[in-house]
């Protein structure tokens, strides 16, 4: 008897409610610890809450991965009801979530964890590919293997407006942050699709409006074989005028069947700060 498939992902996939409902994706939230209280990412805490705590009280949150026991409790009901579960995790270089998910899957069976080797809608792009394959009638094991082969085709990057949050979180030195701010530099953070680690790419200079336009054109010219079915514009909280400008620049540079705009989860936003924006897409 053919088993039906549940499609699931860590909350860090940043797909947003509309796409979550359209493609019937289940999310499991990461933990966000702020001022001693444990919250569920994008359930009872949102990026605006984090920024307010920093502005008003200079309090930064910590994030924690989903543990083995939580994954087991989450998957068990579906497995016992006769489903296979495909679950996409935040990249292994960024979190222990995938390792924990694998351990839970080994205990339960019929769960297929996939290391996205990515973050944010870099994961989301793979989630939507999985939804396409489920619709086409592929089996869960086949879908999981195909997703693993696709991770190297996902290209994610972001422009940081400020290094304040990375400095406060210990991810760059005060000297580097001060120098970047003094020179008006806005670095492009590139996600390495072999494991989800991040490196600094091109450093742009100038006002955010100009930087975002140049960044979009640079990224879309970088690859000759872009999959034009989907592109995400994902941000950590930014003025709508910037979103409209970026979408317009994308459309003037390249035709995409679907351009989605989503806001990043707390887990992603607390590391990059407000006004961070990226475009995320796949190559063929």
TrEMBL record:
Keywords: Lipid-binding
Transmembrane segments: none
Gene3D superfamilies linked to this entry: 3.30.1180.10, 3.40.50.10170
GO molecular function, one term: lipid binding
Keyword Glycoprotein (UniProt): no
Domain of life: Bacteria
Pfam family of the protein (one): DegV
Record PANTHER family: DEGV DOMAIN-CONTAINING PROTEIN DR_1986-RELATED, FATTY ACID-BINDING PROTEIN TM_1468
Protein name: DegV family protein
């Amino acid at each position: 008897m053919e088993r039906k498939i549940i499609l699931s992902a860590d909350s860090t996939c940043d797909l947003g409610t509309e796409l979550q409902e359209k493609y019937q994706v289940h999310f499991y939230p990461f933990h966000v610890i702020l001022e001693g209280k444990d919250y569920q990412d994008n359930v009872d805490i949102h990026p605006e809450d984090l920024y307010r705590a920093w502005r008003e009280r200079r309090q930064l949150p910590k994030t924690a991965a989903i543990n083995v026991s939580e994954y087991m409790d989450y998957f068990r009901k579906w497995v016992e009801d006769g489903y296979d579960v495909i679950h996409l995790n935040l990249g292994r270089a960024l979190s222990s979530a995938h390792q924990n998910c694998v351990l839970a899957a080994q205990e339960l069976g019929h769960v297929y964890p996939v290391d996205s080797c990515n973050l944010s809608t870099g994961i989301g792009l793979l989630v939507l590919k999985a939804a396409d394959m489920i619709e086409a009638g592929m089996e869960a094991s086949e879908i999981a293997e195909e997703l693993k082969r696709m991770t190297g085709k996902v290209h994610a990057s972001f422009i940081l407006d400020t290094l304040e949050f990375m400095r406060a979180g210990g991810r760059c030195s005060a000297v580097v942050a001060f120098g970047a701010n003094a020179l008006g530099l806005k670095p492009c953070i590139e996600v390495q699709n072999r494991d989800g680690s991040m490196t600094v790419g091109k450093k742009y200079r100038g006002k955010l409006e100009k930087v975002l336009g140049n960044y979009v054109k640079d990224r879309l010219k970088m690859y000759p074989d872009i999959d034009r079915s989907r592109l995400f514009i994902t941000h950590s909280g930014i003025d709508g005028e910037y979103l409209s400008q970026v979408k317009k620049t994308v459309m003037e540079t390249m035709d995409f069947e679907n351009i989605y705009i989503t806001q990043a989860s707390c887990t992603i936003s607390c590391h990059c700060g407000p006004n961070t924006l990226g475009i995320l897409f796949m190559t063929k």
